[in-house]
C-alpha cells in the first residue's frame, strides 16, 4: 500500500505540475497559486471536519516547515515554467529524489548500488537537460535555475512531510494546506499595487482540478509514510516528471535538442533506479 500511495502522489503531482504552470503562463503565477491553494484547502478541510477527530501528536506540526519549503519550490517551478519548456524543467525538479535518499542514509537507511547509480545518472542527466547547445558553446536552458531551486525545496519537503504524515496524515495534510494558503495569500496582499485576482469562469474548473490534485498528492504521500521508508516513498513520489513530460509532448508538442532529450531520459532513468 505505501508503494501504491506514493505512486498515486506522483500521478497527482504530475497532473498538477503540468496544468498549473500552463495556466500560470496566461493568468500569472501568484494568481494561479492562490486559486490552486484555496481549491486544494476546501476538500481536505471538509473531510477532516467530517471525521471529527483531533490530534495530540506534535509531529504533525512539521507540516508547517514542509509547507513553507514546498510552496517556495512550487513558486519557483511556476516561474521557471513561465519562460522554459516543461519537458525540460520537470525532470530537473524531479532530481529532488536525491535529497530524501541522502537524508535516509544519514538516518540509517542503506541504499543499494542501483540507487547510488541512479543518483549519478540523475545528476548527469540534469546537466544535459538544462544545457542548451549552440553554435558557439551553449547556455543553460531557460528556467533551469528556477527548476534547480524547486528541486532543492521539493527534496527538503519530503523528510518533514514524511514525519508529519506518519504521526497523522489527515491533519498533516490539512496543516500543510492551511500554511501554504496563508503564505500565498500573505504574499499577494503585500504586493503593491495589489494584483488583479479575477479569472475567467472557464478557467475555474481547471484551477480547481489542479488544487485538488495537489492536495491529493500531499495526502497520498503523507499516508504512504505510515508504512514506508522515507527513502523509498519519497523517490516513488518523485516520478511525477514522467507524467509532466508525456503531457508536454502530447499537448504542447514541445521539442528540445537531442542532447537534452538524452538528458531527460538519463534523468528519468536515474529517478527510476533510485526507486528500485
Notes on the structure:
- Strand 1 and strand 2 form a beta hairpin.
- This protein has a two-stranded antiparallel ribbon.
- The chain has 276 residues and is mainly α.
- It has eleven helices and two strands; from the N terminus they run ααααααββααααα.
- The longest helix is centred in the middle third of the chain and has 47 residues, at 144-190.
Number of domains: 1
Helix share, percent: over 70%
Largest sheet, spatial ordering of strands:
1-2
Sheet-strand content, in percent, reads: under 5%
Number of helices: 11
Mean pLDDT figure: 84
Distance between the termini: 16 Å
Please give the radius of gyration in angstroms: 18 Å
Largest sheet: 2 strands, antiparallel
Q: What's the overall geometry?
A: globular
> What class, by secondary structure content?
mainly alpha
Low-confidence regions: none
Helix and strand string, N-terminal first? HHHHHHEEHHHHH
Number of strands: 2
Short description:
The chain has eleven helices and two strands, in the order ααααααββααααα.
Keywords:
two-stranded antiparallel sheet; mainly alpha; 276 residues; 2% strand
Amino acid at each position: 500500500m505505501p508503494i501504491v500511495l506514493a505512486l498515486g502522489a506522483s500521478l497527482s503531482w504530475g497532473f498538477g505540475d503540468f496544468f498549473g504552470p500552463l495556466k500560470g503562463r496566461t493568468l500569472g503565477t501568484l494568481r494561479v497559486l492562490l486559486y490552486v491553494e484555496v481549491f486544494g484547502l476546501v476538500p481536505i478541510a471538509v473531510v477532516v471536519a467530517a471525521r471529527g477527530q483531533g490530534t495530540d501528536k506534535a509531529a504533525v506540526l512539521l507540516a508547517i516547515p514542509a509547507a513553507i519549503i514546498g510552496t517556495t519550490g512550487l513558486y519557483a517551478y511556476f516561474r521557471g515554467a513561465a519562460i522554459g519548456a516543461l519537458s525540460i524543467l520537470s525532470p530537473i525538479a524531479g532530481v529532488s529524489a536525491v535529497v530524501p535518499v541522502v537524508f535516509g542514509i544519514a538516518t540509517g537507511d542503506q541504499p543499494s548500488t542501483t540507487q547510488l547509480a541512479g543518483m549519478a545518472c540523475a545528476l548527469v542527466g540534469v546537466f544535459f537537460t538544462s544545457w542548451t547547445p549552440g553554435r558557439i558553446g551553449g547556455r543553460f536552458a531557460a528556467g533551469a535555475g528556477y527548476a534547480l531551486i524547486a528541486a532543492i525545496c521539493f527534496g527538503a519537503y519530503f523528510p518533514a512531510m514524511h514525519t508529519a504524515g506518519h504521526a497523522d496524515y489527515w491533519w498533516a495534510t490539512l496543516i500543510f494546506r492551511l500554511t501554504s494558503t496563508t503564505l500565498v495569500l500573505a504574499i499577494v496582499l503585500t504586493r503593491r499595487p495589489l494584483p488583479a485576482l479575477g479569472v475567467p469562469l472557464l478557467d475555474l474548473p481547471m484551477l480547481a482540478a489542479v488544487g485538488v490534485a495537489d492536495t491529493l498528492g500531499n495526502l497520498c504521500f503523507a499516508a504512504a509514510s505510515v508504512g514506508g521508508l522515507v527513502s523509498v516513498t519519497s523517490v516513488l513520489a518523485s516520478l511525477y516528471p514522467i507524467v509532466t513530460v508525456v503531457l508536454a509532448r502530447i499537448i504542447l508538442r514541445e521539442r528540445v535538442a537531442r542532447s537534452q532529450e538524452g538528458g531527460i531520459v538519463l534523468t528519468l532513468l536515474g529517478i527510476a533506479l533510485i526507486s528500485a
